[in-house]
Design brief:
There is one protein chain. Strands 1-2 form a two-stranded parallel ribbon. It has one domain. It is about 35% helix and about 20% strand. By secondary structure, the chain is an alpha+beta fold. The chain starts with a strand and ends in a 6-residue tail after the last helix.
C-alpha cells in the first residue's frame, strides 16, 4: 500500500482550496492502494472541516 500525505496549512479555514484538498484525500482513500493522511500545522477540528464550518 502506498502512503500519500496531503499538506494544507489552512485546513481549519475551510475555504475553496481546503475543499479540494479534502476531496482529493477522499477520492484517493477510497482506492485500496493508497493510505492518505491530511497534514496541517494549525489545529483543525475534522468534524467541522467535514461539515464545511469555519473554525472559531
Amino acid at each position: 500500500m502506498k502512503k500519500i500525505a496531503i499538506y494544507d496549512r489552512y485546513l481549519s479555514t475551510v475555504g475553496g482550496g481546503e475543499r479540494y484538498s479534502c476531496k482529493i484525500a477522499e477520492v484517493l482513500s477510497k482506492q485500496n492502494e493508497f493510505k492518505v493522511d491530511l497534514i496541517t500545522d494549525i489545529f483543525a477540528d475534522l468534524k467541522k472541516v467535514s461539515q464545511g464550518r469555519i473554525q472559531a
